[in-house]
Amino acid sequence: AQSVTQLDSHVSVSEGTPVLLRCNYSSSYSPSLFWYVQHPNKGLQLLLKYTSAATLVKGINGFEAEFKKSETSFHLTKPSAHMSDAAEYFCVVSAPGAGGTSYGKLTFGQGTILTVHP
Amino acid sequence: EAQVTQNPRYLITVTGKKLTVTCSQNMNHEYMSWYRQDPGLGLRQIYYSMNVEVTDKGDVPEGYKVSRKEKRNFPLILESPSPNQTSLYFCASSVYRGSLHGYTFGSGTRLTVV
Question: How big is the CA angle at A56 (ends A54 and A60), to the nearest 5 degrees?
Fold first, then answer.
């Protein structure tokens, strides 16, 4: 079984300050991990992904995330927030392995709403 | 442009009146899936399809039906909608289930059942 916990339902930052969105996962095997962003009234857009290559993953719009197996974490960061970053962010785990009904199943975290103040 | 197209974007209906939400992708993806999004619960999978004529239940399939007669289309059918199906629905597609390229999502359908 796998699960994802996003530790903060809401995060508020000022423009120009760092962003940290926290995500912990649980998986029986080494998972693939994703961060998606959802702007108001829009669909979900892939920000970045971890697929067992480099543990520090760079995504679009200046975001990056670090996979830490020992801490079962995949936190999303950005050095300097922009007003356009205001959105809801989802951490997602994909079950690994070949075959079986659970293979490739996506499990979503509950979401973190990021607010950016001027 | 590669995309997943859902229609309608907004729908208000009455309890028990059958409705269909359409989903179409132009990327020749094998895998398609429906999710519902509710506050505080993230996205939960309703049904998925590995390929044409192959569909299976996700985590919350009760009250929904799907079909996959063509590769590009994956409609979601609510035979007798109820108020607890008021939600934001997303269709997604991928080259295959578990693709490391991630999933492409539609823009969503906000359904209200009164």
Answer: 110
pLDDT, tens digit, 9 for 90 and up, residues A60-110: 999 999 999 899 999 999 999 999 999 999 999 887 655 555 567 788 999
User: How far apart (Å, rounded) are the C-alpha atoms in residues B33 and B55?
Assistant: 9
Q: Which residues of B touch A111 (CB under 8 A)?
A: 40, 42
B66/chain A closest Cα distance in angstroms: 18
Question: Which of B96, B97, B105 comes nearest A43 by C-beta?
Answer: B105
Return the bridge partners of A94, or none: A32, A106
> CB of A116 within 8 A of CB of A21?
no
Q: Rounded to an integer, what distance in angstroms lies between the CA atom of residue B88 and that of residue B25?
A: 19
**Both structure tokens of A96:** 């690994």
Supply B58's token pair: 């996700």
